[in-house]
Amino acid sequence: MVRHYNNALPRPSTANKKLIPILPPEVKVKRGPISLNKVWYRGSSGRLIVIGQHITQLFKFERITLDYHHALEVQGYTERLITEAMRNGDRHIPTMELADFYIHEKQLVHKLFKVLVPRYIDYTDSFTKLWRLSPALSREDIITGKVRHADKGCLELKGNPLPPIEPPKYISRKSYLTNVLLDAAKKDFYASKQFSDNQTSKKKVETSAWLENFNSSLELISIYRNQISDIKHI
Amino acid sequence: MSAFFKNLYNKRRTTHPFRWWIKRKADSFKPELTKDNQKFIDDYFQTNFSTPLIVPDLFNKSQKVWTPESRRVGLIARKIGVYPMWLKDGQRILTTLLQVNDNHVIKCYNSEQFANQVIHQDRYRYQGLACAIIGAESDHFIKYSAGYAGLFVEAGLPPKKKLTKVPITDDALLPPGTPLYATHFRPGDWVDIFGLTIEHGFQGVVKRWDFAGGHPINTTKWKRRPGAIGHGRRAGGPHKGKKMPGHMGRERKTLNGVEIMRINTKENVIYVRGPAVPGETGNFCYIFDTKIIEKKLTEKNPPPFPTYFPGDNELPVDLYHPDVHRFEDETIQFVETEKEQQQRRTGAKIAKIRK
Amino acid sequence: MVLPRVIKLIHSYNVPLYCQLRSASRSWIYKGGKGIDKGKGFSFTYTSTPDDKRQIPLSQKLIPEELESMRLKYPEFLPSTKPEHRNKIKTVLEHNDMLQRRNNIDIPEFYVGSILAVTVSDPNAAGKISRFLGICIFREGTGLNSCFTLRNIVDREGIEIRYDLYNPTIRSIEVIKLEKRLDQDLRYLRDAEPQYSTFPLDMEPELRKEGAPVPVNPIKVKMLPLPWSIDWFKIRYQHQTYGIEKMRGVWEYYYKRSVHNRHHNEYEQFDLMKEYRSHIPEDAQLPIWNKLSDYEKSTSEIKKKARRAKMIKR
Questions:
Q1: Are residues A10 and A78 located together in one domain of the fold?
Q2: Does any domain span residue A14?
Q3: Mutation target vs C (from A16, A196, A230, A234; most C CBs, 10 A cutoff)
Q4: Handedness of CA B18, B23, B29, B33 (dihedral sign)
Q5: Largest Cα–Cα distance of chain A, in whole Å?
Q6: What average pLDDT score do residues A161-186 get?
Q7: Hey, are the CB atoms on B325 and C168 less than 8 Å from each other?
Q8: CA angle at residue B84 from B80 to B87, to 5 degrees?
Q9: Do A8 and A103 fall into the same domain?
């Protein structure tokens, strides 16, 4: 969908002003900001105040339940806040203003710099985790088959002292039906002639020149893919 | 009914596919597999679906002679972006990049077989023509249903994300599994492109039909409205096809007569003049030879028929149109003609005399 | 061999190597709003595969100090901040063309506020060459679209010319005075006193030591009386203009007007995600600078040989 804004003059590019680390792929960032449907606030300035309220409760209790799409937004802001605090430290004035704006209880500002920053110093993944909760369906909804997408989400900071939501998984999957059937089919396939022929004839010149090119192009594709992964963007 | 109203009835845009198409997606059931079984599925896929079948006899026979009445196969590409380039005059043009990714021919029908499949209304349009099915962008077969993946078993190919039917003449038939490259075309050829346009949503009359509207300051309550709709009750209300607000965009549109400026053979990218290719970046585009009579292919410059088959001679990485300035060349310099030199001297003499 | 029927129900997992062909259809491309080809969603990731995970912790900087100068020399090599206009293969092709053009001409390092002289081969000029000198007002664009404007006053008339960096008709770009200003945007010079934008066309280049830091010029410009062509104090246009001398009455008038505007966000400086979306992160910048440092090393040897050949000839 194309949206047109009334920009009288173009602005200079800001891609190079500051060095920001990438948010890890577990954190889902949408292309545009999501509106939090609250009636008492007005505009984009009020939206930041609501996000600040969620962040103070997160730092206080370390696990909160929210609307799922609201939690997606809050996740991004918390991670950015914590990385700024980690990189710039305690005495940097702009980070102090940020912490002062987002955190409404002043005890938690000390918690940020003294408890959370040393906890997450060696992390390479995200600092938060978003769980998707099933919706609260009524009896009529279940009978008629009316299912909506998950309305609620649970945001928590990693390394919290509360009991975990999901128990650690170690269940052997060998007894699953699909794996049992595939194990049986595997034996026939690996013993067959088709597989051994393909292994030997991967690089043979059998039929024609263009077939050779097609097979060699598959190797080039794997080589080129490694080159592209070095460039690693866009 | 006049031709104007007929075109309005044929407009079709829905969110569900045609009902005679095969169900594409597999059921959303995700069991957990062991690593050995994951490897087994990869090996099975690689043995049976990685190398397409080809018969060498057909390959040699398919090198046929091109005639001006024959119609050859097209390509499916994806729009990557827009990019400026300069001509040797110093003029700046914009070019769109279209990437041809993993195109293969999946099936071919003769003119007799195709005539049995055609709808009654289209029988004159496809009279005497054969058909080829092309696919683009291969994907893992586990994502798709068995019916859809079965279409590709004959050719020995992995299933594709996008398919089309292409009308061709009997000369240009190809065996299933032949790959199609970007060098199917050459720089200097003229080409038609069609695709789905950008999505605008529900739009008003000023944006959708370029109505004038009203004055923005000196009016109240009438600024972007259509005004009068009909001629009264006697006329039976507003006539069919009246321009009104509604959904705009996401329609099929063709761009006729587009020139190819450059081809990159390593990554199969076609550079086309102009930024007006329909759709956003990441959109599928369908490329064919033109119907415009003045820009059609001629016998003096016949194209690779039925497609480009790579031989022993390797092509260079970039192929350019003769008017285009290459970035590896030196800067452009203009040379004075004798007339201009004489004018400059006489102008200097006159300026001296006046002083 | 006959496989059991259960394979129909199996769904996707990691797609194998030979399917991840060089395609433009990576997960972060937007797949259309409404209609048949509805994608699952948009994930704003620059690294789409799990092999490219970050190994250095997030508290440490990725880019080493040697490559920090590249950020300022080659700002047009970064891609655009709009994800709609981005593509991996397009940038690779674009970078190759840009580096080939740089083999034929020296494009120096310059900033907004520095004085440049550009010679262009022009078919309509006398002698087919034209030269213009001026102060750099504005710089925009990414890749081959990058451009800059120069401003000067000639015969009591203000002239602004916009040049493309990678235009093949440009013969040379000379930097006469390298300096920075307090703003990134000097278009308010149109309504300033003319002394701030006049420069003689015969100016000689200034010598500068290599490795010295770039000086910042803390000038505050005096403006002509109202009316202006554009409200330069309007906050929607630019958050703050540091380079204008405050005029009595004008500042408060415009500031009050903009506060009541619906689109005004007084806490915009605290908006972290807006900052993230308008920047390009470190992980995406590193491979570009690595590639350019390799290019610089390879070309420096060629240039040394050319210098030696010149000295030998003399």
A1: yes
A2: yes
A3: A234
A4: negative
A5: 76
A6: 82
A7: yes
A8: 135
A9: yes
Q: Which domains, from first to last, does chain B contain?
A: 17-209+244-354 (2.40.30.10)
Q: Which of B313, B252, B284, B296 is nearest to B162 (CA)?
A: B284
CB-CB neighbors (< 8 A) of B50 in chain C: 18
Angle between helices A193-200 and B35-49 (to 10 degrees): 70
Which structural domain range is residue A223 located in?
A: 172-234
Tally of domains in chain A? 2
Asked if residues B48 and B156 have their Cβ atoms less than 8 Å apart, the reply is yes
**Amino acid C42: pLDDT:** 25
Q: Inspect the interface and report whether the beta carbons of A124 and C46 lie closer than 8 Å.
A: no
Nearest to C61 among A1, A19, A229 (CB): A19
**Cβ contacts (< 8 Å) between B36 and chain A: which residues?**
183, 186
> Which residues from chain A sit within 8 angstroms of residue B156, using beta carbons?
none
Query: Which of C82, C93, C106 is the best mutation test for B, with the most CBs of B within 10 A?
Result: C93
Which residues from B are below 8 Å from A173, CB to CB? 32-34
Q: What is the pLDDT of residues B69-97, one digit of tens each?
A: 999 999 999 999 999 999 999 999 999 99
Cβ-Cβ contacts under 8 Å for C115 (sequence gap 6 or more): C133, C134, C135, C136, C175, C176, C177, C199, C203
Angstrom distance (rounded) from CA A151 to CA A66: 8
Comparing B202-216, B228-242, C269-283, which segment has the lowest mean pLDDT?
Answer: B228-242
Tens digit of pLDDT for each residue in C169-222? 999 999 999 999 988 888 889 989 999 999 999 999 988 887 788 999 999 999
Chain B positions in Cβ-Cβ contact with residue A190 (cut-off 8 Å): 40, 43
Does residue A180 share a domain with residue A225? yes
Q: What sections of chain A are H helices per DSSP?
A: 43-61, 68-88, 93-102, 107-111, 117-119, 139-144, 177-191, 193-200, 209-231
Q: Where are the domains of chain C?
A: 65-217+285-313, 223-279
Considering CB atoms only, which of A179, A189, A211 is closest to B54? A211
Whether residue A124 is found in the same domain as residue A213: no
d(C-alpha C116, C-alpha C203), whole Å:
10
Do the Cβ atoms of A195 and B33 come within 8 Å? Answer: no
Pick from B187, B226, B217: which is nearest to B326 by CA? B187
Domain termination site, one of A89, A123, A157: A157
Least CB–CB distance from C89: residue in B44, B80, B284: B80
Residues 1-30 of C with CB under 8 A from B: 3, 7-16, 18-19, 21-25, 29-30
Same domain, A24 and A81: yes
| Chain B residue whose CA is closest to C127 | B336
On average, the pLDDT of chain C sits at 77
Residue A115 within any structural domain of the chain? yes
CATH of the domain at A115: 3.90.1030.10
Interface confidence, given as ipTM, is 0.86
Question: Per-residue DSSP letters for B250-292?
Answer: --EEEEEEEEEEEEETTTTEEEEESS--SS-TT-EEEEEE---
Burial class (CB in 10 A: 0-12, 13-18, 19+), A71: buried
